[in-house]
Design goal:
Layout lengths: L1 H33 L1 H4 L25 E7 L13 H13 L2 E3 L2 H8 L10 E9 L3 H13 L3 E5 L13 H8 L4 E5 L7 H7 L2 H23 L5 E3 L7 H10 L3 E3 L18 E2 L6 H9 L6 H9 L3 H8 L2 H4 L10
Parallel strand pairs: 1-3, 1-8, 2-3, 3-4, 4-5, 6-7
Helix pairs in contact: 3-5, 8-9, 10-12
The structure holds zinc ion (ZN).
Length: 332
C-alpha cells in the first residue's frame, strides 16, 4: 500500500513539475511573441532626409546699370547739341573710373537678349554719336582709342563727304575696321518723321520710310563692307510704322531718344537714349546713370544689387577734386 502511495505521490510530483515546466515554457514563448520589438536593439537613427531648400527664382544675370548716351558734334562752338572735346573726355574718364564697360549698341542688345558670351559687365554704357560729324573721327576716335572705349556712329548717308563738317567714306571705313566703332544707319536724308507724317498720306509716308531705311542700309554695307544692324530715327522720333519697317528691312534694333536707362523689357525697336548737350552737367549724367528703372522686376533686382554709393559719393565731390586737370564746366 505504502509503495502504491509513494508511486502516486511521485507521479503527482512528476506531472506537476512537467506541467509547471510546460506552463513556464508557454508563458516564455508568449512573452517573446508579445515583446519581440522591445528586446531587439533599436535601429540606428538614420540621417534625416535633406529637405530641398526652396528653389531660388532664376534671376537673369544683367548689369546693374545699362544706359545709352547720345552725342552729336564734339566742338568748342556749335549748336546746343555740341559737347566740348574736354567734356567728352571727362565723361569717358568718369565712366571708366566708375567701372562702366563701353559696349557698342549691338553688343548691348546681345547682352539684353542673353546672347552675351563671357562675364557680364557690372555697369554698361553705350556711347553713340549721331549724324556723322567729322569730330567723330578727329575728336572722338582718338579718345576712344586712348580709353579703349567702344562707340556707335549713326550716319545719314547723303551728308557723308559733302562738307568739311561731315565724315568722309575713308574715315568711316577706318573707324569701322578698328574694332572700336560700330557704324549704323540714321537714314538717307535725315527727314523728320513728324514733319513727313503731316505732309504725306499714310501710304506715301510708308513708302518714303521704306526707301530711307533700305537705301541707307544698303549704301553703308556696300561702301564699308560691314553688316549694318542698327538704326537711329531722325530726331529720335518713332512710331509704329517706323518700328515695323525697321524690322522688315532687316535691322536688329533701333534707338529713339528718351532719358531712361535700358532694361531687358525695352522694345528693341525703340531703345531709349539720354540726349547729351551743352546744358547737361556731368552730375546730371551720373544722376541718370545711377537712377534705377522704376516699376520693373529689373528695378527690384537693381535695388538688391546696387547700392551705387560710389556714384553718389563721387557725384558729391567737388568737380576740381574729381578732375584736377580740367576746368570747371561753365554750364551746369
Ligand atoms: Zn540726327
Amino acid at each position: 500500500m505504502k509503495s502504491i502511495k509513494r508511486v502516486a505521490i511521485a507521479a503527482v510530483l512528476v506531472v506537476g513539475t512537467l506541467a509547471g515546466v510546460l506552463l513556464w515554457q508557454g508563458q516564455k514563448a508568449q512573452d517573446e511573441r508579445r515583446q519581440p520589438q522591445q528586446t531587439r536593439p533599436l535601429p540606428a537613427p538614420q540621417p534625416s532626409t535633406p529637405t530641398l531648400s526652396r528653389p531660388t527664382p532664376r534671376t537673369p544675370s544683367y548689369p546693374s546699370v545699362i544706359a545709352i548716351l547720345c552725342y552729336h558734334d564734339l566742338a568748342e562752338k556749335g549748336s546746343r547739341y555740341s559737347v566740348t572735346p574736354q567734356r567728352f573726355e571727362a565723361h569717358l574718364k568718369i565712366l571708366r573710373a566708375n567701372g562702366f564697360t563701353f559696349l557698342t549698341v549691338s553688343e548691348l542688345v546681345s547682352l539684353l537678349d542673353g546672347e552675351w558670351d563671357g562675364a557680364v559687365p557690372r555697369r554698361v554704357v553705350a556711347i553713340t554719336l549721331d549724324d556723322g560729324f567729322r569730330s567723330a573721327y578727329t575728336v572722338a576716335f582718338p579718345l576712344l582709342r586712348k580709353y579703349q572705349a567702344k562707340a556707335t556712329l549713326f550716319v545719314y548717308t547723303n551728308w557723308i563727304a559733302t562738307t568739311n563738317k561731315a565724315l568722309t567714306w575713308e574715315q568711316l571705313r577706318e573707324m569701322a575696321q578698328s574694332g572700336l566703332v560700330e557704324i549704323a544707319s540714321h537714314t538717307v536724308t535725315h527727314a523728320y518723321p513728324a514733319r513727313l507724317r503731316r505732309a504725306l498720306r499714310p501710304d506715301a509716308y510708308r513708302q518714303r520710310w521704306l526707301w530711307e531705311l533700305q537705301t541707307s542700309k544698303q549704301t553703308l554695307e556696300q561702301r564699308l563692307g560691314v553688316v549694318i544692324r542698327g538704326l537711329a530715327y531722325p530726331g529720335g522720333q518713332v512710331d509704329e510704322t517706323l518700328k515695323r519697317l525697321a524690322q522688315q528691312v532687316g535691322y536688329q534694333w533701333a534707338v529713339a531718344i528718351n532719358p531712361k536707362p535700358v532694361t531687358p523689357r525695352c522694345d528693341r525697336y525703340a531703345l531709349p537714349r539720354f540726349s547729351m548737350d551743352k546744358t547737361i552737367s556731368l552730375g546730371q549724367v551720373l544722376a541718370w546713370l545711377q537712377r534705377p528703372p522704376r516699376a520693373s522686376r529689373h528695378a527690384h533686382h537693381l535695388a538688391r544689387l546696387v547700392p551705387s554709393s560710389s556714384l553718389t559719393h563721387l557725384h558729391r565731390r567737388p568737380f576740381a577734386r574729381r578732375f584736377p586737370h580740367h576746368p570747371r564746366p561753365s554750364v551746369n
